[in-house]
Amino acid sequence: MNFSATLAVALRALRVNALRSGLTMLGIIIGVAAVITMVAVGAGAQDRVDAQIQSLGSNLIIVFNGAGHSRRARLGAGTALSLTEADTRAIANEVPGIEVAAPTVRRTTQLVVGNLNWSASIQGTTPDYLVARDWDIDSGRNMSEQDVRSTAKVVLLGQTVVDNLFLNADPLGASIRIKKVPFTVIGVLAKKGQNSFGQDQDDIAIIPISTAKKRVIGTTARSRPGSVSSIIIKVRDADDMFAAEDGINALLRQRHNIRPGQPDDFGVRNLSELMATRAESNRVLSILLAAVASVSLLVGGIGIMNIMFVSVTERTREIGLRMAVGARPRDILWQFLVEAVTLSLIGGLIGIALGLFGAGAIARLAEWPMLVQPSSLVIAFVFAGAVGIFFGYYPARKAARLNPIDALRYE
Amino acid sequence: MTGVLIETQGLGRDYQLGETTVRALRDVDLKIARGEFVAVMGPSGSGKSTFMNLIGCLDRPTAGRYFLEGADISQLGRDALANIRNEKVGFVFQTFSLLPRTSALDNVAMPVLYGGKSGREGRKKALETLEAVGLSDRASHHPAQLSGGQQQRVAIARALVNDPVLILADEPTGALDTRTGLEIMALFQELNRQGITVVVVTHDPDIARHAKRIVGFRDGRVLSDEAVANRADARTELAALADAAAREAAQ
Fold first, then answer.
1. CB–CB of A322 and B110 under 8 A?
2. Of A76, A182, A211, B118, which is most buried, counting CB atoms within 10 Å of its CB?
3. Cβ-nearest to B78 among A5, A329, A405
4. Chain A to chain B Cβ contacts (< 8 Å)
5. CATH homologous superfamily of domain B37-60+88-250?
6. Is A68 exposed, middle or buried (0-12, 13-18, 19+ CB in 10 A)?
7. What residues of chain B lie within 8 A of the CB of A331, using their CB?
8. Residue A176 and residue A173: Cα distance in Å, rounded?
9. Would the CB atoms of A408 and B110 count as touching at under 8 Å?
10. Between chains, do A329 and B93 touch, taking CB under 8 Å as contact?
11. pLDDT-derived band of residue A179, with 50, 70 and 90 as boundaries?
């Protein structure tokens, strides 16, 4: 019997027991829908992490001050004032593979425009900072080296600051007061969104580091000439991240005269690595969910096997008759196998539809990121078919091995 | 197309029922020529059904040999036997054995499809055969929508659709009333006149009288084998029945 005739027989058999076929498919439907939804959730989370890595800037290394001490009390990370602008220049010039290194000093303070005011993080740095962070400028321009040298009172604003201080007005060229000092807005930064810790990266004002020390940071120790709170470094090639990290470590230990065996007075963080760890844990989670979903597929497959056994028993006389008119054992095997696979594939298609619907619903209602990859649909469909073959084979073989005489006489 | 169609030499079939061996058939030497119409008779347990299963290639003998059209097929495998059933043998059963919820046309086309032909060819051949048994107007009916006699005709069409050399009927009139049974026998006689060899298994002597030859079985052996002296013609009997019914109605 050719394939289309076999398929027609299988479809008729499934239609005759429509309710039973539907219930049998349910296991596969739920399994496939769960796989699709879970993989979409996992991929969505992965995608969000990727986007966060992108927003932070790729190939980023941050160097910050180590723990300082007052007499014999140790004061915690970032309190030592060991890093300097000279260190920054040395890193940029001497460590191989470094694209840019930007020194930063930070302080959160009040910004005032007219009768509006807003508290934001003020970042004192150099033009290289935006390069390191892969940060684009929406309008206006970046600060220049000249601005840094001349302690120019210029500022670049993040979107959140613009939204809060300028409402609908154009901020470019406007005057903004930081600690009562008037600054000119020279640029507006592109929106970056939240970072992986939920901080709003757009709630920022960037000014030249020289100006920040002189006008904003005030008379604390931080304003000491040359000292910086952290250095943001962009490595040219992702493969060179670890080498660069080692190079920075070695260079700074040498520059700070730290003898072998003595602790560093600075810390180095490779942020891509941090994000990769998070991505990995996300991936493990989605694999776990997919594993749970495949258990459902397995149960669905056992359901198919069960119903196929019932079907073979019910239709023993039919099998006997088919054999009497010339069906070979392999024809009977095919017929029941095609029936089982048809069940599982239809179940797979419905499951895919339901899974897409479920993923869409979760994405909308829970505002959870979703990413449906076409490959996951194909894999789910193929997997459903494989379940049908695997669990349909044994009942089909049982049917094919029936003795025609016994089958014809079966009551 | 004359000559020996079926020849058995010392044909035997044992069944193993637990510890005991049941000798359902032993030492059957029988020849059936092309164009014969044979009735196989005997009480239940006489071996007539076992004999029919063997010559219908549904079963394999445990002793002796069986030649169909001169070829020894006693030891063929399952696939080869299936092909022979498909091409050379047509079965008719007491309970019709039609597929439920399946049209007469699809029921009749089934053997054609198992012969590896396309669905279109199967439907074409099935329609021709249904026409030959006088049921072309019922092609799309399901078995439940047909009378017993019509169902048996569909079953006969299914047996005929691959142009077999042998029709094997197991109690074909057992589930039918006398009149419908006669109609079926008339159909078999007509097919036999066209040259098809017919073997009917029955325990009803009135049915057996329509054959040309009666083979009697008892305890797994051939007990008697003789030609029918006063062969009944089912068409004449049907006409007589109709006359009687007409006279009854007239009175």
1. yes
2. A211
3. A329
4. 67
5. P-loop containing nucleotide triphosphate hydrolases (3.40.50.300)
6. middle
7. 82, 114
8. 9
9. no
10. no
11. confident
Q: Which two tokens stand for residue A332?
A: 């009977």
Is B97–A331 a contact, with Cβ atoms under 8 angstroms apart? no
Q: Are the Cβ atoms of B114 and A328 closer than 8 angstroms?
A: yes
Per the CB < 8 Å rule, is A326 touching B83?
Answer: yes
**For residue A327, what is the nearest residue in chain B, using CA coordinates?**
B114
**A245 lies within 8 A of chain B by CB:** no
Model confidence band, residue A222 (pLDDT cutoffs 50, 70, 90): low
Query: Which sequence spans correspond to the domains of chain A?
Result: 3-52+277-409, 98-233
Share of chain A above pLDDT 90, in %: 36
Cα distance between residue B47 and residue B40, in whole Å:
10
> Across residues A117-124, what is the average pLDDT?
90
Q: Flag if A324 and B115 touch (Cβ within 8 Å).
A: no
**Any A CB within 8 A of B83 CB:** yes
Q: Given the structure tokens 């001169």, which residue do they identify?
A: B70
Instruction: Tell me how far the alpha carbon of residue B142 is from its chain's centroid.
Output: 22
Q: How many residues does chain A have?
A: 411
For the cut 90, the answer to whether the pLDDT of residue A195 exceeds it is no
CB contact under 8 A, B85 and A325: yes
Q: Residue range A163-187: average pLDDT?
A: 89
Q: What token pair was written down for A404? A: 């025609």
For residue B245, which of B181, B179, B196, B197 has the smallest C-alpha distance? B179
Q: Which residues of A touch B87 (CB under 8 A)?
A: 326
Q: In this structure, how many other beta carbons lie within 10 angstroms of the beta carbon of residue A98?
A: 21
pLDDT tens string A263-279:
888 888 887 666 677 66
B181 has a pLDDT exceeding 60: yes
Which chain B residue has its CA at the smallest distance from A401's CA? B78
* Structural domain boundaries in chain B: 37-60+88-250
Q: Out of B79, B91, B118, name the one closest to residue A324 (CB).
A: B91
The verdict on a CB contact (< 8 Å) between B91 and A322 is: no
Percent of chain A, pLDDT > 70? 92
pLDDT the model gives residue A310 = 94
pLDDT at A57 over 80: no
pLDDT of residue A126: 92
Using a CB-CB cut-off of 8 Å, the residues of chain A touching B86 are 325-326
The tokens describing A67, both together, are 């723990």
Q: Between β-strands B71-72 and B4-17, what pairing exists: parallel, antiparallel or unpaired?
A: unpaired
| Residues present in chain B in total | 251
Report the distance separating Cα B74 and Cα A292, nearest Å.
55
Residue range A363-370: mean pLDDT, rounded: 79
The DSSP element (H or E) to which A187 belongs, if any, is strand A181-189
| Contact between residue A63 and residue A252 where contact means Cβ atoms under 8 Å apart | yes
Give yes or no for a contact between A332 and A396, defined as CB atoms under 8 angstroms apart. Answer: yes
Tell me what pLDDT residue A236 has: 87
Chain centre to alpha carbon of residue B249: 36
Q: Is A331 on the interface with B (CB under 8 A)?
A: yes
pLDDT in tens, B109-148: 999 999 989 889 999 999 999 999 999 999 999 999 999 9
The beta-carbon neighbor of A326 closest among B101, B115, B118 is B115
pLDDT value for A218? 65
B53 and A16 within 8 Å at the Cβ level: the answer is no
Lowest pLDDT segment from A224-238, A240-254, B11-25, B176-190 = A224-238
Q: What is the pLDDT of residue A309?
A: 94
Tokens in use for A88? 């920054």
By Cβ distance, the residue of A4, A326, A404 closest to B86 is A326
* Whole-number pLDDT of residue B2: 65
